[in-house]
Amino acid sequence: MKIILTGFMGAGKTSVGRALAERLELKFIDTDQYILDKTSFKSVREIFEKKGEKYFRKLEFNAARALADGGADAVIASGGGMINAPGALEALKKGGGVCFFLDAPFEILKTRIKNFTTRPLFKNHVSARALYNARQHIYKGYADHIIHRGKLDIGGTVQAIIKTLAGAAKKKNVVIGSPVAHSLSPRLHKAGYKALGVEKIFSFGYKEVTVTELRDFMRHTRKEYNGLSVTMPLKTEIIKYLDALEPAARKINAVNTVVNKNGFLTGYNTDYQGVLYALGNVKGKTAVVLGAGGAARAALYALKDARQIYLYNRTLRHAREAAKIFGAEVLDDKNLKLISRADIIINATSAGMDGVSRPPGAEYLKAGQTLLEMIYKPNPTPLAALATLKCLTVITGEKMLLGQALEQFKIFTGLPAPEKAIKEVL
């Protein structure tokens, strides 16, 4: 998400922008400082004096285009005169940037700016007032939202921006499946809502729904819920009740996230993003996935940049079907010992949920490998405990759970996920 702040000098773009970026855990960029960092000039005033306003506006446009093409999520405080750099704000908004105009009465701005003479276009209060009047309608024309800062301090302005992004209507989210009462999803999401101060807008609960009950439940979803977090045994079954699937969910053939936009239900899969969050860079690695169900398919999708992928499942037919889709090589009981050659082993089976069992191939684990255990209860599982004894790097299911929840939070709220606050729940 790119959040762009515009406004007259003294409106607080930089101070509000820094506070907003910290709250949303985003990068903060001040376009004036960005330009200075890319040039040898020491101040904007120096650029105006030596090169003129036209030259500076060209620098602003180039900076805006570079920031737009960079693709990183950020809070961007634009220079007060960027509206006079042709195409600059349009470039900043490219790709979905949301623009907020921080509006404030001129008399309040005067009290915040003690020395107008340090600003290149302001000789005195009279000229500043004239420029203020001339720019107001331009700011409003570019803005997606207007925040009136008259009586708002920095914290109040930050909260007003976040609530504007969240929207005014209350939105109910729920995790469904069976069993589901043990799910950590409500706690994770509620922690995020509280951190952003939007707990009165968003709610998150849980509802026990079996496969046979799913049809009746989905009849009410379009009118009642903003989003569904979907767990077993519904991740594939729910697809028949949706209007669209994003590409990853379609290939994985499993959905763990459903978002409702005006009655239109779209299915997503954030499990694979949880795998990538847990493992980091998998490029050039050799990986073994144990299992061939929805969780395994999410892992296989996440491993698409790996050098080599092996897949093992007790039911060989299921293994072959999944391997064909994701370009994996099937392991059977005769060559399962190839696990010992892998960099990464992912347990996507249910073995270990009982606190006793281990999946086939556990005896081939060796020091130096990385194990991702997708089960997060119990912790550790018997497989994870064995891997620790054998000096593997063990990544528990909680890290994957966190990664997929962060992506799910963004989808449900349209807001950046406050990772620190959500992580503390785990």
Biggest sheet layout: 6 strands, mixed
Number of strands: 17
From the spread of the alpha carbons, the general shape counts as: elongated
Please state how the strands of the largest beta sheet are arranged side by side: 7-6-8-10-11-9
DSSP summary: helix tally: 17
Which regions contain 5 or more consecutive residues with pLDDT less than 50? Answer: none
- Oligomerization state: single chain
Distance between the amino and carboxyl termini: 25 Å
Q: Rg to the nearest angstrom?
A: 26 Å
Structural class: alpha/beta
The average pLDDT score comes to: 92
Q: What portion of residues belong to β-strands?
A: 15-25%
Classify the helix fraction into a percent range. Answer: 40-55%
Any overview of this molecule?
This protein is an alpha/beta fold and 426 residues long. The protein is built from 17 helices and 17 strands. Strands 7-6-8-10-11-9 form a 6-stranded mixed sheet, sandwiched between helices. The two termini are 25 Å apart. The model has no long low-confidence stretch (mean pLDDT 92).
